[in-house]
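User: Predict the structure for this protein chain, please.
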Amino acid sequence: RNPGEYKVVGTHGVSGCQADMTPYFDLKVNPLPISYQMVGSGNYCTGGAGAEIKLMDSELDVTYILQKVIGANQFEEKVLQGTGDEITFGSFTSGTYRVVAFNALTLCTSSMQGEVTIKENPPIDGGVAIDAETSFCANSTGALVTIHTPQENVLYEIRDLNNVLVADHLGKVGVDRFDYYITAAGHYSIWASYEGDGCLIRLQEFDVQRFDAPTQKYTVSSDVVDGCGSSGATIKLSGSEFGFVYSLNIYINSVLDESRDLNGTGDELTWDVTYNGSGTVRYDVVASNNGECQFLMGSVVISYKPAPAVLDLDVTPLAYCHDDLGVEIQLPNGAEP
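Assistant: Here is the predicted structure, written as structure tokens:
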């Protein structure tokens, strides 16, 4: 049972004399075929050819026999020769399968790791509702992709242009949606399958664009902090960038009253403003990229105090004599005290 050199010794039954039989011989132990892992999704759709079965590796000069297990019996399905690499047996329908390896040179056999159980599944719903945003802002969580009412036991995958898996979700009972935020620009596709190659279908393709924020957050300032109604002020942004639109949003009593846009010039921007009233006015400066994204640069608040109303005066006559008291000026009725 152990490897090494062996001989047979004969003993005479009467005299007790012994003699070595010839020839001596060496006993060798041949290795079993290496046990590699079987792989396969184990799923296919009604009307399909079945699910694929593979062996992750193989040896040269070794024969691999795929067997279908039915009760205590095994039935040969397909025979392949080892290539020194992964081997694919093909697609098979419902049942449990295993692989046995046989080396014709050594007459040794061994079972491969695992089994693949294949089952038939209902077709995948290719019309499942999907909402996919096609752009996102640099300061956001990304472009939202939503798969509504995922089908039970169906694997949904989001893949990029290079077919690299970005996200996946297995449909379950009671889960009515799957949300995922894409955070990189590029081309994406959504696939559905029964975990891998089972009934694989492409549901949707789309492109995602990323809108950048300004490289710098510039300072917003005003030359007036407290002003009188009807007086003017200048709102200044300390810098700007080409390709961005800068909006001055004017809020009176926290309600947006007006918005004024200026294109970025690479230099500072200014807005001249007036307010004919009293109270607090907030000025927000917001940068936007192609109108898609908004980035708040900053805000200033000006408190306006009430100013006298502008009145039409009654001044008659417009001249007086040297020794007179002067010209009489009368305010109209209703003038403020």
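The longest strand covers residues 293-305.
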